[in-house]
Amino acid sequence: MQQFYNATYLERYGRPMEENLLTLLWSLSVSMYPLGGFFGSLMVAPLVNKLGRKGTLLFNNIFSIAPAVMMGVSEIAKSYEIIIAARFIVGICAGLSSNVVPMYLGELAPKNLRGALGIIPQLFITIGILSAQVLGIRHILGNSTGWTLMLGITGIPALIELLLLPFFPESPRYMLIQRGDEKTAKKALQRLRGSEDVDAELSEMRLEDQSERAEGHLSVLSLLSQRSLRWQLVSIIVMNMGQQLSGVNAIYYYADSIYATAGVKQNDIQYVTVGTGAVNVFMTIAAVFIVEASGRRLLLLCGFGICCVACVLLTVALTFQESVTWMPYISIACVIIYVIGHAIGPSPIPYVVTTEMFRQSARPAAFMVAGSVHWLSNFTVGLVFPFLERGLGSYSFIIFTFICLVTLIYIWLVVPETKNKTFLEICQMFAKRNKVELKLGDTDLPLKESKESLEDAVRVTAF
Fold first, then answer.
1. Contact assessment for residue 422 and residue 111, using Cβ atoms and an 8 Å cutoff
2. How far apart are CA 148 and CA 72, in angstroms?
3. Digit-coded pLDDT (tens) for 296-309
4. N or C: which end of the chain has fewer CB within 10 A?
């Protein structure tokens, strides 16, 4: 792509592109994606409240198909500006889908499978990364003739979704609580569960509906000022910042030089990178199967703990790799261990927990905040890390060690286990920490079953 940028500039202006300008354009091409992701996150709440979860995902395909076509024809059009603009638009697509898909699946899933289904989006993200790494091998599409095709085929998954998603139901919770359409919600639930008996789930939804009728749709400003949601909000911010600022992008940035130092031939590094991507996919699959048994909290603690230790060891290994002959192999091991740790906890679980910590009225605004923090943190790491690496070298990973440790301590002290609990049960778990009282009528809200009387209104009273 950089060769294309140079050749296009030379053809336009009759002189080679200056190195600083090339660096600027390349940095813009890279950074437009997370910046688009940030703006996509800002669109989550208004779109999911207006169009629904399924409707938003169908609408979002525009932001995938259009840039895929733009990037596919960029070489023919002889325009690198098209690539930069397309990267921003596809970033909007990523910002929307990375928030709306977990929200949609979390609302469709029964409580005993919510964690496993919540990790599925991250699993497909890792499969997409692995597919890109395979297609990016030099003798496949990672060359001067195949790169536009590689960028263009990113629209194929969107086309598949556009064809298949209309056959799936809208979120029953959205239909009942936000649209008041109980008949459609019941039909959707019966279809999803494969059973006519869905009265227990419908009762739980009605109870949640009554508990938040006074609140209506919460905006971001309302969410920030809501005392009953204070610790949930702080938790999703900390987890999403920890996810992106824990050094995952820096690890991949350093990986190629680590492999080269260990003696891997330059042409073979791409295959080792594919192997790392395969480890990422395998461990995410493992997380799908263990999340309901181990719980979200344990996976988060183990994941951030492994990443913290891996960053410490990697700092030591990179510092002594010039003087100790076997140290580069320790560096490779640290990269793989870090990828394993991130794949089982920090990568997939924050999306699951964001869905679970909030009730229907607050969930869109919560995902809007979580997504914005996620993409801004991603953008910040991409912008700042090259300077950190230049100034601190291998010691830059000490910063990531500290971030992993702080996030781990916060999760240990604040974040409760949410597996196999209803949204209202989770809300009650946070009530004490938020110093609010959640009541049904004149008695504490039991929440163990959703068959209690639904005639009384739920009220949240600040002490």
1. yes
2. 5
3. 999 999 999 999 99
4. C
Q: At what angle do helices 363-392 and 230-245 cross, to 10 degrees?
A: 30
- Residue 275 tokens read as 């192997």
Confirm if 288 and 123 have CB atoms less than 8 A apart: yes
Query: Which residue in 425, 426, 406, 379 sits closest to 87, CA to CA?
Result: 379
Q: How far is it between the farthest Cα atoms of the chain?
A: 80
Two tokens, residue 439: 């009541």
Taking CA atoms, 204 is separated from 106, 211, 411, in Å, by: 15, 11, 28
Question: Residue 248: phi, psi to the nearest 5?
Answer: -60, -40
What would the DSSP string read from start to end of 188-234?
HHHHHHTSS--HHHHHHHHHHHHHTTTT-SPPHHHHHH-GGGHHHHH
Q: For the residues 255-271, what does the mean pLDDT come to?
A: 80
Q: Is 125 in contact with 301 (CB distance < 8 Å)? A: no
Closest by CA to 414, choosing from 348, 357, 365, is 357
Can you tell me whether residue 408 is helix, strand or coil?
A: helix
Strands, sheet with 436-440, edge to edge from the N-terminal-most edge strand: 443-444, 436-440, 458-462
Interacting residues of 280 by C-beta distance below 8 A, sequence separation 6+: 126, 129, 130, 339, 343
- Nearest-angstrom CA–CA distance, 352 and 411: 14
- φ, ψ for residue 262, nearest 5 deg: -75, 0
User: Under DSSP, is residue 459 helix (H, G, I), strand (E, B) or coil?
Assistant: strand
Provide the CB-side half-sphere exposure for 40 (13 A, CA): 31
Distance CA 101, CA 456 (A): 33
Q: For 71-89, what is each residue's pLDDT tens digit?
A: 988 888 888 899 999 999 9
On the question of pLDDT at 40 being above 80, the answer is yes
Question: 113 phi and psi, to 5 degrees?
Answer: -120, 5
**Mean pLDDT within 4-8:** 86
Q: Which two tokens stand for residue 440?
A: 């049904």
* Three-state DSSP class for residue 98: helix
Q: Which of 420, 421, 461 is nearest to 439 (CA)?
A: 461
- Cα(96)–Cα(127) distance, integer angstroms: 19
Which pair of tokens denotes residue 200?
């227990």
* Residue whose entry in the numeric block shows the structure tokens 């700042």: 384
Instruction: Output phi, psi for 460, to 5 deg.
Output: -110, 120
What does each C-alpha distance from 30 to 8, 90, 99, 228, 242 come to in angstroms? 18, 12, 21, 39, 21
* End-to-end CA, the chain: 60
